[in-house]
Records
---
Amino acid sequence: MRLPRASTLLALGRGGLPRASPRLLPSMRAASEGVREGEVGVYGPPIPGQAHDKRWGPSYVLNDGTNHPMIGFGTYKVGFIPASASAAAAGDEAAGAQGPSAADIVGDALAVGYQFLDCAQFYGNEKEVGKAISRSEWFDRDDLYLASKVWTDAIYEGRAAVRKQIDATLKALRTDRLDLYLVHWPVPGKHVDAYLELQDAVKAGKITSIGVSNYAAEDVDELLDHPGVYITPAVNQIELNPFLYRPKTLQYMADKGIVVQAYRALRDGKAFEDPTVLRVAAKHGKTAAQVMGAWCLAKGAVYMPKSTKKARMVENADVVSFQLDGDDLAALDALTTEDALAAFKALYEKCVVRDTPLPEDDPGIKRDITAG
């Protein structure tokens, strides 16, 4: 195993246990130093569902017994914007637009010390992510937690297409296994078969943990009610931030033993000037991004920020050096409006059939999901 250099987020410390770099992220160092395996130094004493992994530091324990890093790096719109991305479809961003390559950006993320990379077929950049991993001077494959997702087109086409995409992702990321693989959206009438194929990929040794993404409670119920499903999803990746707080959904997932990953945790930077967020940030001497990241962890979710700037990558990960108190959380929780939840439901109804032949009025689309 090639060890990370001293400038990484986590480096091996006394007794082979991790401690953070003294230069970049003192918060991670504080969370790691003196913590034995099986304990966690985040938000006080160890609590059920948290662990301290010797590779990744503070982690969640999934329902299959494996550890999942609490903090990761998102790769959506990193080096490439998919043609059917919501912002591209709305004309806010140019479809296919490219700036710095995903290989360079992810390379910077690895150099900073991120070890969990959240990828997807839809993101259109997995080959570039694989290039960054292969040329990294910082981590070997076993030091990384690699996750990906199968997109709606393959989900619609069926199990053979899902199987083919899993193999394509393995090849693109230059690995023989994935730590986590998800069904990206619950395509009506198709998503359960896609999940059954993921179960087979676990048996084949291609994937360690499997889960879902953008599933409402009702979608999980449909999945678990199928007689062929014998692996409960380990993860559900959903949009989650103080402006789209979904306590009923979080409680449902917790009751099922499903860990939530939060995407758009920083709301694409659109909330960094919000007065409530700024007031909480000033109280703790932190930035708006750090407050929103700490909020995610306080809700028990995996936090996956993204940035193309190295300094922001470091800033975004500094979320365990302080604690939000009850007043902070209540103020942030109250930022979610009924309009935001209605907009989420409308987007869900469109996205479950996006890039498939199914119409937006397909009778299989669930119209009364649990939004909150």
---
Amino acid sequence: MAIAVHSFQWIPPNPTSYLSQNDDGPPGPESPYSFGLYRHLTRDLGFNVKVVIPSSQKSWIGKAYHITETTEGRYYYPREPDGLGETSYVSRPLRDGEIAEWILLDGTPATCANIALHNIFPGKIDLLISGPNFGRNTSAAFSLSSGTIGAALSSSLSKIRSIAVSYGNVERPTPKAYFEPAHNLSARIICYLWNNWGKDPGGVRNGEVDLYNVNVPMIGQLLNDEGMQVHWTFMWRNSYGRLFKGVPAVEPPKLGIQQPEEGSDASKKMDSENTGYDIASVKIGDLAFKFSPDIQDLITPDLSTVPIGSDGWAIGKGFASVSPLRACFAEAGNTPLFSDPDIGTKIIKL
């Protein structure tokens, strides 16, 4: 089912304030889309957008939180035309060419979202927009690992309307001519969803849909006069295999036996403990692994095996997709157990 988003009327709440999030960090090669969408939302649509994002790349981290570390931050001042800018440990007035003050936190996307909502802008955010992610977040295999969706899940559990946006890179490198049309389409989808937010009796916020997952394929269809079709979709339930590869063991360098110098007991202690090796450089035999996922079948699946109407099907057909999601692990549906009116009295006899 396609969504008509080519013409829309923006009906803002009062007050209107948006929190922008991502899992790719500040503008740069690993985060080429965030500044463009921010500029489109603020300059062209007049959105009041606050930005609190991780200070570095945090992809594939899901909805993890920092719980033992102290999360520290800095202020960031993006400039035209690419969003690159300076950081400061204290807030300061904008300088010539700087367009806004953002906040970078040394934390996960979900950590940033929660801190922004409850510590930095408490009670001031109406909608969280997470993204645009540098790469698709379609199907269960990608979505369950996504920091972009993780931030949206985090905010939806705080009863804030949330939308995760991802741009599926197809051509390498992605032509810059696609950037603005993608930002324009994403903004229209965001406006449409705000004005037509769905109902869900199981939703945590007033019986509403908890969050939406939006995927826009970065392909030539964005440049066509008729635009790109946008479809309601469900999440393709798929799987993956190997995500890590072994790293060859490295023989640590030999330093030779060190002789203790004269002095206190402290000065006689050596990191090598007289083993002849620099402990800091020793690798643990062959137990070394690096993230190197084998996921080509997820990126270019045989479309005949992908369920029609799923997010994986939509991106394969060159359509943008919008999937309503719940902020929970899905129960096993369509079973006699969950249709039994006496489910609350069911006891497992072991």
---
Amino acid sequence: MPDLVIEVIIDILLRLPVKPLLRFRCVSKQFCALIDSQDFIRLHLKLSIETKNNLGLILRNSSFFSVDFDSLDTAVELDHPFQSTGRHRTEIFGSCHGLICLSYCLSNDREDLAIYPSTRRFQKFSFRNVGFNFMGCSAYFATSGFGYDSVTDDYKVVRSLEFLSPRKIGSLVKVYNMKSNSWREVKGFPYSHRKERRCGVFVGDALHWVVSLNPSDTANANLEAAFDLTAEDYLLASEHANLVAAFDLTAEDYQLVLQPEFSDKNFHINIVELGECLCILCNYREVRVDVWVMKDYGYKESWSKQFCVVQPEVIRSLEFLIPLGEWLGSPIG
């Protein structure tokens, strides 16, 4: 086949959604080899990100469903690796570049995970609390994240276990590398996670969580803190609690993200990804939600208040408000 014809075919295939591409793998061995090649996959992903095409939403009820983001008309049930084992014990750790990381909890010290792409060819692996002794701990909390390391061209899963003992707060953090199919222990998390089951938000080669300063840290010994026996969590003043921590997937190190100068800090904070940017949701309960976006990652001056959602009388709470994207210049959520 002439080179010009091949270039035209590649250009056409790059503009197609994943589902028809999978069908076209059956056309010939040449088509199959082309569509399965890493170069084609990278180009298809790059074009999809640039044009904001091939976007989808994953919805959960008793099962997982995929919905086309542009049409939002038909929900298709996902045929995922844990579908037959126990739907109610399956959770989504995160998604990145068309890959979904799923978790299925088997017991207190083991869970199976799978990185599940649109092509349905998944990579399955397990997490065990190896080397971590829960004896003597009053409670422990687990959080997670899934993202991409652009330097090593590798996808990583981060699993953090935070435990409370009578004398201190400690943590165990492990990182899974998709390329080597192996876990490694890294430096412990230096902050205290908020006790909500929220996965890390992937932006700028880093995973992000809302955290507070660790009151058991000797460097913060002068902080005033109380321990809530019901929530089993430490309560700090807002300036020490509404913090955003980033875990750099390349350097595998932690740092706090500089936030905008809020005029009123009496809000509940959440973070999401919006248009490939880090987004802070300031929830002034039963009043409004302010949405801030960091346009240039890592620069405090690039924070911009995009819009405000006022609490309507017909809706009880905006606690679970999540902006999904922008449509013709206006945000949708």
